[in-house]
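Reviewers asked in the last cycle whether our approach scales beyond single polypeptides. To address this, we selected a multi-component target totalling 217 residues and predicted its structure end to end. The input consisted of the following lines:
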Amino acid sequence: MGDNRYLTFALTKGRLAGKTLALLEQIGITCTQMQEKDSRKLIFVNEEQKLRFFLAKGPDVPTYVEYGAADIGVVGKDELLEEGRRVYEVLDLGFGQCRMCVCGPSRARELLQHHERIRVASKYPAIAKDYFYNKKHQTVDIIKLNGSVELGPIVGLSDVIVDIVETGSTLKENGLEVLEEICPLSARMIVNRVSMQMENDRIKDIILKLRSVLKLQ
Ligand code: PRP
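The resulting structure, written as structure tokens, was:
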């Protein structure tokens, strides 16, 4: 395909979006349309650079990229692990750093030692399942929640939670703590597998420029 085709970026709405745009700006990729405040618009175009950007919910970004609705995506490693989509993960962008952890009240620490059948609440059931079943070999009941997961152990829904910890203040303010760390997380750039072949020059150029700005080898 020639240079006339638009290259489409799927960006994660919310915390990561601003940081992604700031990073792209450093390599000369801009989208002024996107900076309009209070807009409900979801898709933005840079006609000059033949680029399109849209904002999606984190778990949906790998889906858009796998199906080729977006060529490139920027999304947290947590969503990549949870969704298990067939995409190329090409860069660790370094921002959005946090940790996936097993958390709970300190008394729950013991429940993790003896392979007890405990209840685990999480927005990330696949990550929780993989950790408990494949790494710890502990059979657990996983309860899917959609947010404010810290409530789980507080109101007696679950013994522990598997959730993201960034500053640790949500845990602290709710009398919970990190019991075990599962893995570090950060924002990643992903690429559709066909786009990587068809638009190799343009995508490689973006990756190289980002690597240079991020001071990666
Ligand atoms: C995330 C995460 C924790 C919190 C961690 O929730 O699920 O609850 O941030 O951050 P901290 O360690 O800096 O306190 P988010 O704010 O995305 O909202 P949610 O609970 O509705 O998922």
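Residues 123, 147-150, 163-170 surround PRP (CB under 6 Å). We regard this as preliminary and will revisit it once experimental data from Aim 1 are available.
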